[in-house]
């Protein structure tokens, strides 16, 4: 933070035109009025701020503005063609409609010539004489303009270095033995002196005006006529009539704004104006993006992957007929919705109404949509019941250079978009049990369901897994995050993990001690993340059962009478009462890991929050309860879209109403940020995998990479990479459709730079540095469509 105003004082009177001179850097902070915090809403109603840049509606004539606003004057110039001075006066006039008592102007004369500046300042003076307070910030006004101001306020180093009339500046400086040279502009001189160009005089200046409290120069050489006029105007009560409310009803405002917007839409002939080519290019890009996303909608909404997973697995149908039906059913809808989009947007943006151009534009859009669709859903779904099938599908996906994902039950994966690659569902089954005097030894296929395994062991009189009951997922996923619950972790019972090395095709055994098991951690999240699949897991369960009854309701059980079945039932009952069932209400269990912090940090937090649960770790660190932290931020029940922090268990994010993956991500981010702000701790998600957009977003970015770099061509590698994006062909094709053949109707004002893009080849060259013939582009698109369509029939 930086102090920008240092105890300065000053008053800006109504009826006077004030200039503020001197550098004041932008900053945020609080402002007090009479020592009380300013009521910003009230202040905004009282004041108007006119910016340095004139933001006027470009397609509305002055006449229309004046008529709409009932000023009764007539003008026929569109606002975009007004001169600088006219625009400034129009801005001021528009703001004055509501008769505000205070008007702020940021450098009103910047960019105006001498005549326009003095007209503008005399208008402002007239406005001020009506009893308003008009305050302008100025940089370097000319001497003549400077003399027009009634009141000058100079700021130096955050303090008031002068406050008084413009005529008082020179005598003031004389008194401080700082004579202004006769031919010098007093405004420049006082700024230079106060900014230290002639030595350090700012302190003396501030002291002389008592940092703005001294009013001595306020009345120096004031025009007597002005004083009379000021009083007369003030008494006339013009300003007292100012409105704190809008002068018109909401309905009137709506009608006026509607008319204005319709007029603007009708007059914005973007497609007919060569000077707007660059905006029209934006329209083409928007079309390509819309085409990219239109076909994805049904996929995103239909939970397609889960459906196919279940139905195909239950042998209802084969994948070939499924994809054939999918493509045939989707294509008409894709074409229909693409056409609806084009029927609205094409004429709305005034694109040329010529048959061949429309046909070309439409064809390209539909092609982009069809290709995009084939890039959406998981392209290949493999259900692997054998190791050979796993190796085969991995090799096929490598050949296609596609991403490859192994999925158990998918309970720990959040799909952010469809996965454009091979998804392999692990179905390696089998449980083999051996024993010796002390232990049961289990060798379990990684495709076995974890809960089934727990039940299976209990049915065979084998104890040791009961605390881990009801954890969703497969056995093969369990070592990845070292699943744990109620005081037991997989690492307590795991002997080894068998991995399939996809590159060599061999099976490697990793002994438990080398698995790097930690709290929701293992080497399978790091070193063995890619190129390996867990195919089986070895467990050892002691015949001498020693129950773990530390947590929750387990602590209430009697050590003498307890048995594994009772522990299992108690754990299941606790989980059912606390955790929402993912089959009824979608969730990924605990979303965040419990944070482990240094003991000092924990002590700091306990000093503030004495009831905060904390658990000492072996290495001296402390584990905190993420659920308690979230709950303490009042986030239980907090909702974004369809995603909510569970109202009972704050650690769980639930899908209460068709939550999108974005909802979950935004909610998780909000929870993380809120906890970080309150406790200074950064929660980490437990879910290990977030699958981002696989292809469409990179392709989209690639498509526009390097636009506008025509003067400075990109390296050839980038240009070639970009040329691979089918979206690139889409955009270029659309530009070629609109501008390709010469057009008589294209308006091209002489003074506008972008008119060179009337020549489409130049434009495309400017965008990319590579020029393709349109025919070639169409051929490429055709090939791509065929390729992606055919690739959907791999079996
Ligand atoms: C309601 C609910 C409650 C939960 N409670 C707990 C709990 O109490 N304790 C706990 O520890 N966890 C809990 N979880 C998390 C989850 O159950 C575990 O992480 C489980 O191991 C995930 O199994 P999955 O088969 O669904 O894995 P998936 O989500 O399918 O996969 C998870 C990750 O492992 C990879 N993967 C899967 N199989 C293999 C394989 N064979 N080889 C290589 N990589 C593979 C995937 O690519 C992915 O990266 C809970 C989840 C839910 C939804």
Automatic annotation (TrEMBL):
<keyword id="KW-0472">Membrane</keyword>
<dbReference type="InterPro" id="IPR017871">
    <property type="entry name" value="ABC_transporter-like_CS"/>
</dbReference>
<keyword id="KW-0285">Flavoprotein</keyword>
<protein>
    <recommendedName>
        <fullName>UDP-N-acetylmuramate dehydrogenase</fullName>
        <ecNumber>1.3.1.98</ecNumber>
    </recommendedName>
</protein>
<feature type="domain" description="ABC transporter">
    <location>
        <begin position="1"/>
        <end position="182"/>
    </location>
</feature>
<dbReference type="GO" id="GO:0016887">
    <property type="term" value="F:ATP hydrolysis activity"/>
</dbReference>
<feature type="domain" description="FAD-binding PCMH-type">
    <location>
        <begin position="374"/>
        <end position="544"/>
    </location>
</feature>
<dbReference type="InterPro" id="IPR016167">
    <property type="entry name" value="FAD-bd_PCMH_sub1"/>
</dbReference>
<dbReference type="InterPro" id="IPR016169">
    <property type="entry name" value="FAD-bd_PCMH_sub2"/>
</dbReference>
<comment type="function">
    <text>Cell wall formation.</text>
</comment>
<dbReference type="GO" id="GO:0140359">
    <property type="term" value="F:ABC-type transporter activity"/>
</dbReference>
<dbReference type="GO" id="GO:0071555">
    <property type="term" value="P:cell wall organization"/>
</dbReference>
<dbReference type="InterPro" id="IPR036318">
    <property type="entry name" value="FAD-bd_PCMH-like_sf"/>
</dbReference>
<dbReference type="Pfam" id="PF00005">
    <property type="entry name" value="ABC_tran"/>
</dbReference>
<dbReference type="InterPro" id="IPR016166">
    <property type="entry name" value="FAD-bd_PCMH"/>
</dbReference>
<feature type="transmembrane region" description="Helical">
    <location>
        <begin position="277"/>
        <end position="303"/>
    </location>
</feature>
<dbReference type="GO" id="GO:0008360">
    <property type="term" value="P:regulation of cell shape"/>
</dbReference>
<dbReference type="InterPro" id="IPR036635">
    <property type="entry name" value="MurB_C_sf"/>
</dbReference>
<dbReference type="GO" id="GO:0016020">
    <property type="term" value="C:membrane"/>
</dbReference>
<dbReference type="GO" id="GO:0008762">
    <property type="term" value="F:UDP-N-acetylmuramate dehydrogenase activity"/>
</dbReference>
<feature type="transmembrane region" description="Helical">
    <location>
        <begin position="323"/>
        <end position="346"/>
    </location>
</feature>
<dbReference type="GO" id="GO:0005524">
    <property type="term" value="F:ATP binding"/>
</dbReference>
<keyword id="KW-0131">Cell cycle</keyword>
<keyword id="KW-0133">Cell shape</keyword>
<dbReference type="Pfam" id="PF01061">
    <property type="entry name" value="ABC2_membrane"/>
</dbReference>
<keyword id="KW-0963">Cytoplasm</keyword>
<keyword id="KW-0573">Peptidoglycan synthesis</keyword>
<comment type="pathway">
    <text>Cell wall biogenesis; peptidoglycan biosynthesis.</text>
</comment>
<keyword id="KW-0132">Cell division</keyword>
<dbReference type="GO" id="GO:0051301">
    <property type="term" value="P:cell division"/>
</dbReference>
<dbReference type="Pfam" id="PF01565">
    <property type="entry name" value="FAD_binding_4"/>
</dbReference>
<dbReference type="InterPro" id="IPR003170">
    <property type="entry name" value="MurB"/>
</dbReference>
<keyword id="KW-0274">FAD</keyword>
<dbReference type="InterPro" id="IPR011601">
    <property type="entry name" value="MurB_C"/>
</dbReference>
<keyword id="KW-0560">Oxidoreductase</keyword>
<keyword id="KW-0521">NADP</keyword>
<dbReference type="GO" id="GO:0005829">
    <property type="term" value="C:cytosol"/>
</dbReference>
<keyword id="KW-0812">Transmembrane</keyword>
<dbReference type="GO" id="GO:0071949">
    <property type="term" value="F:FAD binding"/>
</dbReference>
<dbReference type="Pfam" id="PF02873">
    <property type="entry name" value="MurB_C"/>
</dbReference>
<dbReference type="InterPro" id="IPR003439">
    <property type="entry name" value="ABC_transporter-like_ATP-bd"/>
</dbReference>
<comment type="subunit">
    <text>Homodimer.</text>
</comment>
